[in-house]
Amino acid sequence: MNHIEEFLKDVNRYCDFYLEYDATNSKYKFNNLFVDEIDFESFENDIVKLKNGLIDVLVDIEKPESFILDVLNEINRIVVWYENKNIRNFNSFNELGSLIVKTENNQIYTSSSEYTIENVQSISGISEENYDGILGYLIFHKLTTNNYIEKADFEKVKLHYALKKYFESIYNFIAFLLTLQYNINHFGIKDYNHLRPIPKPTLRCTINLSKIESANLFNLLYQSGLFYFDLKSDVKRKKAQMDFINANFNYINPRGKVVQMTNVVKEFGEINAFHHKENQLKVLDLLIDELNSIREKTSLKE
What we know:
Elements: H1 2-15, E1 19-22, E2 27-30, E3 33-34, H2 41-58, H3 64-84, E4 100-103, H4 117-122, H5 133-140, H6 152-187, E5 205-206, H7 211-224, H8 234-248, E6 249-252, E7 258-260, H9 265-270, H10 277-300
Parallel strand pairs: 1-4, 5-6
Antiparallel strand pairs: 1-2, 2-3, 6-7
Helix pairs in contact: 1-2, 1-3, 2-6, 3-6, 7-10
């Protein structure tokens, strides 16, 4: 029963979002993140995790139909509110008032967003280059807000976009639940694994180092500027660095086995610890030796 309860807690956590208005910076937060810092693809990724978690539960229970109905009822709680209050319409923004927590005397925040109010006000219309994503949404609502004559509307539209993407993920999960329900009721399927989300195929590169040594290697490459992500936001850049390593590399574990890289942020957090200094020096010396070897071989070819 533990994994069932844990899954339901995961669903509850995802459905219980938090809205905040930071009066110090005149900006909104969604789930403790300024809207400018949100990776909107993370909503889709979280739903994929919920779908896989649901399949894991269904293979272990006798009455999957009842459980799916329980999950639907839990999600419908938030969907009913969203639809009854017509939150999908920006003109209903004030309906969020009772949910938004106002905070003051916060740390000054410098936005890294490339989309400023001045930039958006100067854009004449939506084009093929700017129609998608939050920029297109901000441009679309220039008409709704009279070209953001009230500057506060600019931040409201950004929060509304975050809510829009969040609820798109909710509806995506509902569609998945209904598909499961239909297949069980009409076809009596028992093998749910073929209904799992199809992961994006990736070919991983194996680093012939331990996990902490691999983290040190990438840390050196990132610090040197040889490897970099062209992102203005420190938060987004660091996340992109971690996601790149986790998604594309393996490492060698203490037993000499190839293991998929996961949660490398933990090793990055340990890199500056004194007892890892020898690993840093080892990786640095290894890199220098390899580069010197390549240089010598290249010189011999001349």
